[in-house]
């Protein structure tokens, strides 16, 4: 096992594997990442911690994907909670860049939990490879099954992806943390492997899953990664990798806001300008302010007209 200084585990994603088995895991702690992501938003306590858990979950899942791009997790509902959304981007530097926001209606007391506020909930997972080689955006939409965010994700992974996954999540309002244990999906070669191996792999998954389930929220939030892994899996042969940094980052820009406004159409834009004199937009994620006066708005509309009449040239 390579030694890393056990200073703290703040704002890192730590991958590990159980040697000679297809079982792997991730640990994540979001402290600054979490605080910065929500610093511009006044969220009721229950939604703040739910969003923290969803952020931790997105980092854990993004780290299991072999892809650069965006993983977006959303919980939508018709109750007081309208939307929880978290985006986690992986890039060439392998840092995880995250942003998150929530929408709700009416007064939501601090005592309300996420599940008090959900009616007819849906869980939506989007994978956007953001590549130019034509890779498709994938989206899965399932009803919410489970009474915690971790249970929802475990059910989703098993039912939709056929991947046995165990997830632990917590958030104390200042930090969010989580752990994932997963049996790697079989490759074509492994499908033909002996049944006894498959049984052995399942046994490993159940054994380390059981050991992992003894973890407390306090340990997840506060212990340095190596200390935690040693404490949980003392008898197991665990290999850990170089940790990945996590950070808050909002990708909004004048161009992305202008594109979003164009989608409203000329008629809608004209009526906003007539009513208010300008179009003002605040980014839902970072609260950055964008303003379009009459002249800017006219340019948005001219651009739309151009897009619509010009023939496609490739
Ligand atoms: Zn923004």
Rg? 22 Å
Q: What is the fold-level CATH name, i.e. the topology of the largest domain? A: Hsp33 domain
What is the subunit organization of this protein?
single chain
Structural classification = alpha+beta
What is the CATH first-level class name of the largest domain? Answer: Alpha Beta
Total number of domains: 2
Give the biggest sheet: 11 strands, mixed
- Share in helix: 25-40%
SSE sequence, one letter per element: EEHHEEEEEHEEHHHHEEHHEEH
Second rung of CATH, namely the architecture of the largest domain: 3-Layer(bab) Sandwich
Q: Mean pLDDT, nearest integer?
A: 89
Shape annotation? elongated
Describe this structure in words.
With 314 residues, the protein is α+β, with helices and mostly antiparallel strands. It has two domains: 12-248, Hsp33 domain (3-Layer(bab) Sandwich), CATH 3.55.30.10; 254-308, CBS domain Like (Alpha-Beta Complex). Helices cover 35% and strands 27% of the residues. It contains ten helices and 13 strands. The protein has helices at 32-37, 45-62, 149-161, 188-191, 195-212, 217-222, 225-232, 254-262, 266-276, 294-309, and strands at residues 12-18, 23-30, 69-76, 81-90, 96-104, 122-128, 138-143, 165-171, 176-183, 238-240, 244-248, 279-282, 289-292. The strands form two sheets. Strands 1, 2, 3, 4, 5, 6, 7, 8, 9, 10 and 11 form an eleven-stranded mixed beta sheet that branches. A hairpin with a 4-residue loop joins strand 3 and strand 4. Helix 8 crosses helix 10 (294-309). It is elongated and about 70 Å long. The protein starts with 11 loop residues before the first strand and ends in a 5-residue tail after the last helix. The chain binds zinc ion. The site of zinc ion has 6 residues, from loops.
